[in-house]
From TrEMBL:
The keyword Oxidoreductase applies. This is Acyl-CoA dehydrogenase family protein. Keywords: Oxidoreductase. It comes from Streptomyces achmelvichensis. It comes from the Bacteria. It is an enzyme of class 1 (oxidoreductase). The keyword Oxidoreductase applies. Its EC number is 1.-.-.-.
């Protein structure tokens, strides 16, 4: 495929890389994740107001830049290189597409311009820590079992005579859920016989809402536990017949392409840092990067990163392939970061070394959005690769 970037994509890449090199080094990242927001609000404001990052893929009619998923993928690759902690994924990758797809005209007019200018960040809350399932990445999300299935557990919505619906339940591993002023909460309504999953808007100041930031393996991807106890909410959309699971799957495909690009950026950065280290680290009177065995290992990882990049940008143009591209890119990130730790030698095994920032991102992303084998298995099942084999087996029996 043609992977040549457009002039606009080159401008996005260059501008972001220069800014993040200045403001988002490993020390700045560690400082940012320890703030109350879990990211640098000043840097986020600059990315939003000067570069229009959160509105990059939103239509100009809502204050966005009017670019597409491919341009947003370029931004994700660059933020991935720095492991930038920011609300970009939760807000622009997940919430904005759902609001655009399901929201009423009034909801879109109110929320999307504020997302585009960075003044509003959002978080998607689903029950059971099942974000990958809810987004249709590792299984069919149509049954709604991931949200509680209408039985006890999950998040339940009940109608009231006045004042709108009330939500009751809990969601864990909500990306940026501790700081976002607006939550999109997936909840079951209608009771078990006719249960269906809907999305509701919950404001940060709503009664009955409790949010607690969780300790996570990857501090650069802040997560929270969200508790709702008869919490007032507003239905996203104007009726309860919308195809919510379909909208979640569509948003999941786009988010998978963005996550794939982000993983490529992280892998490329880890590889660059490893190459720089082996050029300067000497053993037996020569740089260890001059040894043939080390060269071969780095060459293998370079090929892996380039192949992953090709898959990521193909998915950015064809989001239906997002899950498969994400599998390849997460695998590449895992392999490259493990090699980085190995080639840094004894210092690479110390938990405080910056190589572990990238290593922990690789492990955490597989836990959140994978694992790789389930992403591939679901992609194969969706494509019908095993249908013929099943039929032949049945005939043989």
């Amino acid at each position: 495929m043609d992977t040549a970037a457009t002039a606009e994509q080159d401008d996005i890449r260059r501008t972001l890389r220069e800014l993040l090199a200045e403001r988002a080094g490993p020390d700045e990242v560690r400082a940012a994740v320890r703030t109350a927001d879990g990211h640098d609000p000043e840097l986020w404001a600059r990315l939003s107001q000067q570069l229009g990052l959160p509105g990059l893929a939103l239509p100009a009619s809502y204050g966005g830049v009017g670019c597409g998923l491919a341009e947003l993928a370029v931004a994700f690759e660059e933020t991935g290189r720095a492991l930038l902690p920011s609300p970009l994924l939760a807000t622009s990758g997940l919430a904005a597409p759902l609001i655009a797809a399901l929201g009423t005209p009034a909801q879109r007019d109110e929320l999307l311009p504020r997302i585009a200018d960075g003044s509003l960040t959002c978080a998607l809350a689903v029950a059971g820590g099942s974000l990958a399932v809810a987004l249709g990445l590792v299984g069919d999300n149509a049954t709604g079992e991931w949200a509680g299935g209408g039985r006890a557990g999950g998040v339940q919505a009940r109608s009231t005579a006045v004042g709108g619906p009330l939500l009751y339940g809990e969601a864990r591993q909500v990306l940026d859920g501790h700081s976002a002023p607006l939550l999109l909460v997936a909840a079951h309504t209608g009771g078990f016989p006719r249960s269906r999953t809907l999305l509701f808007l919950v404001r940060a100041d709503a009664e009955g809402l409790t949010r607690v930031r969780q300790t996570s393996l990857d501090e650069t991807r802040p997560q929270a536990r969200v508790e709702l106890r008869d919490c007032p909410a507003e239905l996203l959309g104007d009726d309860d017949t919308a195809d919510v699971t379909g909208a979640l799957a569509a948003a999941g495909a786009g988010a998978a392409a963005l996550l794939a690009a982000e993983a490529v950026g992280a892998a490329a950065s880890a590889l660059d840092r490893t190459v720089e280290y082996v050029r300067g680290r000497e053993q037996f009177g020569r740089p260890i990067g001059s040894f043939q065995a080390v060269k071969h290992r780095l060459a293998d990882q370079y090929v892996r990163v380039q192949a992953a990049r090709s898959a990521a940008y193909y998915a950015a143009r064809h989001p239906v392939e997002g899950g498969l591209a994400l599998a390849q890119c997460l695998e590449a990130l895992r392999e490259v970061t493990a090699e980085a730790v190995q080639l840094h030698g004894g210092i690479g095994f110390t938990w405080e070394h910056e190589a572990h920032l990238w290593f922990k991102r690789a492990a955490s992303d597989e836990l959140l959005f994978g694992p790789v084998h389930r992403l591939r298995a679901h992609a194969a099942e969706t494509a019908g690769l095993f249908a013929g084999r099943t039929a032949r087996t049945a005939v043989a029996v």
